[in-house]
Automatic annotation (TrEMBL):
InterPro entries: Metal-dep_hydrolase_composite. One of its GO terms (molecular function) is hydrolase activity, acting on carbon-nitrogen (but not peptide) bonds. It comes from Eubacterium ramulus. This is Uncharacterized protein. The lineage of its organism: Bacteria, Bacillati, Bacillota, Clostridia, Eubacteriales.
Length: 71
């Protein structure tokens, strides 16, 4: 869990971004949405990134993979 805090909460504190930064209503937030079951999988495996946000607004997204069965 410490490595997760290192790249999230502590990063914002280190940059002196203050209380206006983070995932709360009304705050600026830069984050990526990762398709992972837990933080360990997100940080240590090649988790898919279906969406990216900058200042709380969606800036990039990908469509989920679709499999077609043709028989």
């Amino acid at each position: 869990m410490n490595s997760y805090r290192f790249v999230t909460v502590n990063g914002a504190k280190t940059l002196h971004l203050g209380d206006g930064y983070g995932i709360k209503v009304g705050n600026d937030a830069d984050f990526v949405l990762m398709d992972a079951a837990n933080y360990h999988q997100a940080l240590n495996e090649d988790a898919a990134v279906p969406a990216s946000y900058r200042k709380g607004k969606l800036i990039a997204s990908t469509e989920p993979k679709q499999i077609k069965v043709l028989f």
